[in-house]
């Protein structure tokens, strides 16, 4: 079996870090300079390898080693190249680098697959910049709602459509639903990714084969309105305290979460943003406003629906008890996805043959693989062990672990592309 070009991978990781370091962490901003530099680096590398390089209306990047039968359904691999603000160097990028390292090894050996094999650099996977899930992959299939193009980036205040135009994209084509990818022309989609939780590290395992990807239910811009009042002069019986009301809701939902886990439900619940109004809140005031967000994730739509019911009930009780008013705002989310059983088996067999310690596990985080799977495309994900979690500057994937994951990926790619 031809080895991936791990030296190339190391060089790419070093260049990505050098071009993305913001003084604290890694920032590759969606449809901004950071993400663009990463795409330019990958495209330049692909051209040096002799690969075909193309982009679509959303500027997703496609780097293809042509097969002997150009009409056969293609094998796709890859991931995203954007990051959260002040994130880590490997989240997303490891999947693109892995794909290029595999093709780099094949090119050096003079191999030609039966079908086209494409490494995809996906745009805009991180919804930290625009509050929409899977902008790049949805656009590739013509599935991004036209109204999403009017959403403004959280830091610049500029619309998605304008950010696209600035970098040479075609928002009109996206709005018209023009699709670059078609499910019937894709044999499979394979995504290597760092694990973003602690399972592989704690169990001292090198790689993990993903069983499925959680869907989400989110309230990004929720609020609770009470009444501002003097902290010393207002007795408890006369308060409408927004902070206390929200704290009660959070406490009740934490207990419901524990009960649901005890009953066998698999899910997570996060209040990622909780803040009072900086213009009005004060140490000597009862708080009249709290802004907050809620993120629920599970592979079970039923579990998400049940927790949403618990949320509504907790809000109703807190409203009555504390005389406040809740506004949850728009509810958004993403659909859960199952990974292909056949591809999972091939991945596990490859890991076993390579003598890599491994296990199956679900993904609590969302990934573009979910979008591919929900188009009916056989899809599989491989996690590589990574210390310190993700979405922070301290991601600590070891290059040796990455090399093991790349070798697993190479075997699955070769089997699907007719090289073995």
Automatic annotation (TrEMBL):
It comes from the Bacteria. The keyword Transmembrane helix does not apply. Its cofactor is Mn(2+). Belongs to the peptidase M20 family. This is Zn-dependent hydrolase. The keyword Metal-binding applies. Homodimer. Keywords: Hydrolase, Manganese, Metal-binding.
